[in-house]
Amino acid sequence: MNTTTLKEVEYEQPEGGAVCSTKYAWARVPPEPAPDERERLKARIRRLLKEKNAVMVSHYYVHPDLQDLAEETGGIVSDSLEMARFGRDHAAQTLVVSGVRFMGETAKILSPEKTVLMPDLDATCSLDLGCPIDEFSAFCDQHPDRTVVVYANTSAAVKARSDWLVTSSCALDIVRALKDKGHKILWAPDRHLGDYIRRETGADMLFWNGACIVHDEFKALELELLIKEHPQAKVLVHPESPAEVIALADAVGSTSAILKAASEMDATEFIVATDKGMMHKLRQLNPGKQFYEAPTAGNSATCKSCAHCPWMAMNGLADVARVLETGANAVHVDPAIIPRARMPIDRMLAFTAALKNGQPAGALVPHFGAA
Ligand code: SF4
């Protein structure tokens, strides 16, 4: 793998202090409300959404209640690409983003005039934490001949230093188009996803050394044992997982691609290597099918996540109700960087919209060196 290690990715004692640690995140996960309290909170949220002209935008990895309530009230549950598009295009003045910090920031960059609220502003992401702007900017400065492609899971400042933004659902198409136009790529922050894309496209890619603590923990040997237990099962893997795990997959793709594969593949059993929050939607959409979690335990297991993102788990009903009521936890992005941070996001959204509409998306990618 063509990697350059500038900084070991650190979660437990980073410079940012306790707020960045997974232990802190797990300690902040809200308790499950009692059934009557749960119904009261949902009713309060429904009422507040109407009163405040607000809409819920939830990620597939958050608590099922936040997924179901978003859909029931006219919001969305989706991957980060669709969350960005939906938040930008929806008429509501307030977006309640249940997910992690970079998702709220992306919504704010795309809609600076809207109020973007999050249940917990400390909900972050190991990829974002592992890619601080100063070191990343220095890395980019060392490689001026490379086009900078960053994953959505980054800070607004890192986005503002990039040329293109991608999510796991469009990264292959965008990198392939860049390669076709003569670009060499500097990729950040997820090294597993980057290496998967390099293998698939043959693009010349230089990697930042980041990883998702959830997908990084899936274990190939234990997965092979589970496959032996369920020989009929198809294996669905998110490309943030290690290469040995991806090698065992019947389908590799983003959360949306995993959902599509589960409904379209000719199988009734699936082993799924992504955050277990996805199981809710997979089971909801495929009632006759069986889904098993891919293993994270075994030799060298760290169990920082055990297949569930602690920062995603910090989102809860009580905090959604509280922020809607009080306007607390509004996301702020420095207005000075918004126009520059928006540029790579707009490029991605234009590219994916063209792809969706059957237009020649590659035409939106300039040849390397073109103005
Ligand atoms: S699941 Fe991984 S990539 Fe997603 S927010 Fe959590 S740490 Fe980040």
TrEMBL record:
Q: Does the keyword Iron apply?
A: yes
* Entry superkingdom: Bacteria
Coiled-coil intervals: none
Q: Which cofactor is recorded for it?
A: [4Fe-4S] cluster
The cross-references to Pfam families, in alphabetical order and at most eight, read: NadA (PF02445)
The annotated pathway is: Cofactor biosynthesis; NAD(+) biosynthesis; quinolinate from iminoaspartate: step 1/1
Q: One GO molecular function term?
A: transferase activity
Question: Which SUPFAM superfamilies does its entry note?
Answer: NadA-like (SSF142754)
Assigned keywords, A-Z = 4Fe-4S, Iron, Iron-sulfur, Metal-binding, Pyridine nucleotide biosynthesis, Transferase
Q: What is its EC number?
A: 2.5.1.72
Q: Could you tell me which PANTHER family the record lists for this protein?
A: QUINOLINATE SYNTHASE, CHLOROPLASTIC, QUINOLINATE SYNTHETASE A
- Protein name per Swiss-Prot or TrEMBL: Quinolinate synthase
Q: Which organism is it from?
A: Diaphorobacter limosus
Q: What is the lineage of its organism?
A: Bacteria, Pseudomonadati, Pseudomonadota, Betaproteobacteria, Burkholderiales
